[in-house]
Specification:
Elements (H helix, E strand, L loop, with lengths): L1 H14 L1 H6 L9 H27 L11 H45 L12 E4 L6 E4 L6 E5 H6 L2 H17 L1 H14 L7 H19 L5 H13 L9 E2 L7 H8 L6 H30 L1
Parallel strand pairs: 1-3
Antiparallel strand pairs: 2-3, 2-4
């Protein structure tokens, strides 16, 4: 009976306190890829622990020896809780995914209707230019159809090198499908109760995908151009829609991103430690579920 309790406690910790603690370790952002793997491992481990807590209680052999029906009632309740958790995840995934895809599809149609051509980005595939005086740059992802959106205000204020860096940033989002990563964390955030779920995970992952796109765009000597472009875009005090991925807005995390653009260190030891920790986080709930079953078989 100890295993279900441990897994339940682990699920609560991984869904709330652990993400809150990780968000207070800004140094992990210097290795954004390894940090992203760790955040994904924590999220997956929380789900595994939550499901494993109920399943391990249902399949436990200890309660079956009891003479009364109380243990069966406990097992039934545990199974219902497990089904509830799984059901909330599936429903949340359907609702969040359906809403996001509908909003993006509608926005792409509006952009195609209102956008015009501009010689400064002629030939750039999937790029649309909106008649807007404020500097604006974002992308609208999609499985088959995607758009990178720039405003006339952005093109007027940015140099050619800065425009190239911004386009590289947005294309990095699209190529890496960062929207799917954010969607997965959005599903988890909406599926778990508020008193358990931590908004820190979603906020930190949003920052990490921007840092990853910055790293991709800053290659080939575009660090200075990207940094100045982000500052210029932030001065417009306007960001893209919530369901898009904007290069910059009024988010205070922009200062963190600009500082990290100049960080050229490989930080191999930190990356290795974070990846090792990610593996350990996944192994713990799996071991708690699998080992008791193996012991029972033996």
């Amino acid at each position: 009976m100890a295993t279900p309790l441990l897994l339940g406690a682990l699920a609560v910790l991984l869904a709330g306190p652990v993400p809150a603690l990780l968000a207070r370790l800004p140094r992990t952002r210097t290795t954004p890829r390894a940090a992203m793997v760790l955040w994904q491992a924590v999220a997956l481990a929380a789900v595994l622990a939550a499901l494993g807590a109920g399943l391990s209680l249902v399949t436990s052999t200890a309660w079956r020896r009891a003479p009364d029906l109380a243990p069966y009632a406990i097992a039934t309740a545990a199974l219902l809780v497990t089904v509830l958790v799984l059901g909330r995840l599936l429903v949340s995934g359907h609702l969040v995914g359906t809403d996001l895809r509908a909003l993006r599809r509608r926005h792409r149609d509006q952009v195609d209707l209102l956008a015009r051509e501009d010689e400064r980005v002629t030939g750039a595939a999937a790029v649309r230019v909106l008649e807007h005086d404020l500097p604006l740059a974002y992308c609208v992802p999609g499985r088959k159809v995607e758009r990178v959106v720039l405003s006339v205000g952005a093109l007027d204020r940015l140099s050619p090198d800065e425009v190239t860096a911004v386009l590289a940033h947005e294309r990095a989002h699209l190529q890496a499908r960062h929207d799917l990563v954010l969607e997965a964390f959005g599903v988890l955030h909406h599926a778990f109760p508020r008193w358990v779920s931590s908004a820190a995970a979603l906020a930190e992952v949003r920052l990490l995908v921007e840092i990853l796109a910055d790293r991709a765009a800053a290659r080939d000597g575009r660090r200075r151009a990207l940094g100045s472009a982000l500052v210029t875009l932030a001065e417009g005090r306007v960001a893209g829609p919530d369901y898009a991925l904007a290069a910059a807005g009024s988010d205070p995390s922009l200062l963190v991103r600009v500082r990290l653009i100049g960080d050229r260190g490989p930080h191999r030891l930190q990356a290795a430690l974070l990846l090792t920790l990610a593996g350990a986080v996944l192994v713990v709930p799996t071991a708690f579920v699998v080992l008791p079953w193996l012991t029972g078989l033996n």
